[in-house]
Amino acid sequence: MLSIGYGATDTLTEMTGAALLPLVYIAMMARRYFFHIRDGNFVSVDDEGMEFATPREANIYAARVAFEIGTDDRDYEDTELSVVDVHGHEIGRHRIRRQLSN
Predict the structure, then answer these.
(1) How many domains, in total, are found in the chain?
(2) Which domain holds residue 69?
(3) Predicted structure pTM score
(4) Domain for residue 82, yes or no?
(5) Residue 79 burial (10 A CB sphere; 0-12, 13-18, 19+)
């Protein structure tokens, strides 16, 4: 457990008297991220999102999705996939480019 001037096993509840989860568990909770696609003036808004443990994991997922979209047989002139957290903060943006097949 996290220690802030108390014993190594103290939880936030014991330190503050509040009925809260230990800090370790709060840090491990998944957060929801949304993946919006902008193609020129058209925007496809993701209203469901997905849960990831960290912003980095959500961003890695978005990069993979952007790559996979680029394998479609279509040109992408001005298309991007953005990663947004539950507070509306953009944490990543990935250009979607047509991938040449081998």
Answers:
(1) 1
(2) 30-95
(3) 0.68
(4) yes
(5) buried
Give Cβ neighbours of residue 34 (< 8 Å, ≥ 6 apart): 45, 46, 47, 48, 49, 83, 84, 85, 86
Between CA 75 and CA 16 the distance in angstroms is 57
CB 86 within 8 A of CB 67: no
43-47, Cβ contacts within 8 angstroms, sequence gap of 24 or more:
none
- Classify residue 10: in a domain, yes or no: no
Nearest to 83 by CA among 40, 39, 53, 45: 45
Domain presence at residue 3? no
Helices (H) and strands (E) in the chain, counts: 3, 5
Per-residue pLDDT of the chain (102 residues; tens, 9 = 90+): 333 444 444 444 454 555 555 555 555 567 999 999 999 899 999 999 999 999 999 999 999 999 999 888 788 888 999 999 999 999 999 999 887 765
C-alpha 54/C-alpha 91 separation (Å) is 11
